[in-house]
Design a protein that fits this description.
Blueprint lengths: L3 H11 L2 E5 L5 H10 L3 E3 L7 H6 L3 E5 L5 H17 L3 E4 L7 H13 L4 E5 H8 L16 H15 L2 E5 L3 E4 L4 E4 L12 H13 L4 H19 L5 H14 L2 H7 L2 E4 L1
Parallel strand pairs: 1-2, 1-3, 3-4, 4-5, 5-6
Antiparallel strand pairs: 6-7, 7-8, 8-9
Bound molecules: adenosine-5'-triphosphate and 2-(4-methyl-thiazol-5-yl)-ethanol.
Adenosine-5'-triphosphate (ATP) binds next to helix 8 and helix 9.
Length: 265
């Protein structure tokens, strides 16, 4: 993979526009993560304007958290626009393991156009592949093993010819032939809401300058390393502030030194 320092520098030079259609719980965190990485967020979601906005973007991020009819309609319109203009897309399948509506909608989106990166936590990626699987809530099911999720991620990547990112303590990235296991991060990332959504937003940022596998790896390494820099005994509030500080101030070389990636062919 290209050096993380170079990828981070390419984003800061290009200042790509990232169109996000996402849930209101973490929308502010996502916009700030995109800005901190050196890109420009636009969080437009009205069905009547999203086509025009997607067409001007360098990447599109679709997040199924707290889904509504209006956002479902907008996501279909934007995905079609991105396909037409060959704009890279990341689909963050939030809640796919706990809701038939979201699983069916994700399947519909995958029929319209296959996103460059299909992302979710372990449960969400497992549910997209093993469609009979169910789990409660938006957090990952701790009973799922890394091996089970690797197999599902691999199957999904081969089925759709896409990059798949399954997040947890060890993030798994595969295009169906190569794997990257990213062992950055801190349990504090799982103790605040919306860090998975920030990860999806960062995937959008790096997709504007890199192909799927590199973009997903860069996003995991950057968020994980910044999580490590942000660790604090004070609690979740201070951690979130520290995380945004780290995302906006850590240098590419500092992140590259902290990056813990195992690449497997
Ligand atoms: N125990 C852990 N140790 C290290 N890093 C972790 C741990 N748990 C999660 N992370 C990191 O936190 C980030 C978010 O991943 P996670 O799988 O928690 O997302 P999520 O469940 O979709 O989150 P949310 O629904 O709150 O947005 C990833 O970069 C992941 O590597
Ligand atoms: C808690 C929650 N519910 C829907 S989206 C979201 C943010 C993290 O996925």
């Amino acid at each position: 993979m290209r050096k993380l320092n170079e990828i981070c520098g390419a984003v800061r030079e290009k200042r790509p526009l990232i169109h996000c259609i996402t849930n209101p719980i973490s929308i502010n965190q996502c916009a700030n993560a995109i800005l901190a990485a050196g890109a420009r967020p636009i969080m437009a979601e009205h069905p009547a304007e999203v086509k025009e906005i997607t067409e001007t973007a360098d990447a599109l991020m679709l997040n199924l958290g707290s889904i509504t009819d209006a956002r479902m309609q907008s996501m279909e319109i934007s995905l079609r626009a991105a396909k037409e203009k060959e704009i890279p897309v990341v689909l963050d399948a939030v809640g796919a393991a706990c809701s038939a509506l979201r699983r069916e909608f994700a399947a519909r989106l995958l029929e319209i156009a296959v996103p460059t990166v299909i992302k979710g936590n372990y449960s969400e990626i497992y549910a997209l592949y093993r469609t009979a699987y169910r789990s409660a809530g938006v957090d990952a099911d701790s009973a799922l093993t890394e091996d089970e999720v690797r197999e599902a991620a691999d199957g999904l990547a081969r089925k759709y010819h896409a990059t798949v990112l399954a997040s947890a303590k060890t993030d798994i990235i595969t295009d169906g032939t190569r794997y990257a296991l990213i062992r950055n991060g801190t349990p504090q990332l799982a103790a605040v809401t919306g860090t998975g959504c920030m990860l999806g937003s960062l995937c959008g940022v790096y997709l504007a300058v890199c192909p799927g596998p590199e973009a997903a790896t860069a996003a995991c390494a950057v968020l994980g390393a910044c999580g490590q820099l942000a660790e604090t005994p004070k609690g979740s509030g201070t951690f979130m502030v520290n995380l945004l500080d780290a995302l906006s101030t850590a240098s590419g070389t500092q992140l590259e030194e902290l990056m813990n990636v195992e690449e497997i062919k």
